[in-house]
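Teaching assistant here, posting this on the class forum so everyone can see the example we discussed in section. The complex has two components, and the goal was to see what a joint structure prediction looks like when all of them are supplied at once.
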Amino acid sequence: MPKNRNNLNLDSLLDLKRAEKPSAEFWDGFQKEFRQRQLQTLMEKESAWSRLPRLFFARSSVFIPLSGVAVVLFVLVVNFQENSPLHSEYYEAASMVQVAPQPAITEAAVESPQVEVVEEAPVFAPAITSPASFVMDLIPNDEPESLSYTREYPTFTIPAENRAVSALVSYTLVRDTPTFSMAGRPRTIGF
Amino acid sequence: MNLVKAVTQPLAGSSQALTERDVDWLLVQRVQAGEVAAFDELVIKYRERIYSVVYNLTSNKEDSFDLSQEAFIKAFQSIARFRGKSSFFTWLYRIAVNTTLSFLKKNRHRRFLSYENITEEASSSEVLDVLAAKTSTEKPTLIKELQHKLNEAMQTLSVKHRTVLVLFEIDNLSHQAIADIMNCSVGTVRSRLHYAKKQLQSELQDLLD
């Protein structure tokens, strides 16, 4: 690099930059500070797991509202599932099955003059309190949907806390059992 | 420095003299074996050079203190992963330069300068006498003005150009060493250095005329 007439060039200016140095005392402080930071690093390394709660609380302004939102969402989802049509249909069906067996049916059938007919299909016989004028009145026109086996597991013998399970079992049996069709049966039975 | 000498003297006295790199590697191995105090020797050995690089890049003595400390702590934290493929010195410089460059990138909009003192020897240099005579200014005032102009001119350079200039002109590293530290080719280093000097010269034109 060509030097100017005063012997001043970029290198000589950069010499000044090289001469910018801290004092000797500065390095004592530097070393002391480094040892402190080093110690802190070592301690942090040892208790890495203990940082997790600290991290949570340090970011609590984010985590706490997020946790609240998560709880609210959970509650909403649970409520939605309980009120959903599928869910209510299931419990409706289960409760129908649970109340299906009526011990009064047999008694009604006994009262009825058409005992033989009723005995053939006691489950489908309606409870009749007044004497029938016609045999046809005793036979329901509606086709029964299914056979029920719940008579073998009477609900009154099942403890209250287990009735939901019983209902479920009954519902499953009803659903999976082939239905007994009355379609081919003559309606003039008893004449 | 005494601690380093204490370590190196018995080794140097052995049949085969150890290079600087070997001495560093031995110290690194001691740290890796769990001897934390061995790292102090490495800090004492390199603290002035690391601080100088950081200071000349930032032109701020408080930031330089923090960044040098951070660089040494980072090196200490990851020394277990150091396998000795490069020299410890290159590795440490790379950490310091990267830490500083990240800092400068993060704080590019809020920078202010704070200078170190100029040593006695530099204060009595011929250059200052010439300049004092030329500008008829008191020497202490002239030194402060020069220091300010120099540091401001350095800050006008891009970070990459400034880094190359500092490592080559102030820290006297070779082109190859700079290329290793900056992870670029020697050609790139040369080109950046040329451009940086040219730009700095134009920034300081009024002083050099």
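For the discussion questions: Residues 105-110 of chain A have pLDDT under 50 and may be disordered. Chain A has nine helices and no strands. Think about how each of these relates to the inputs above.
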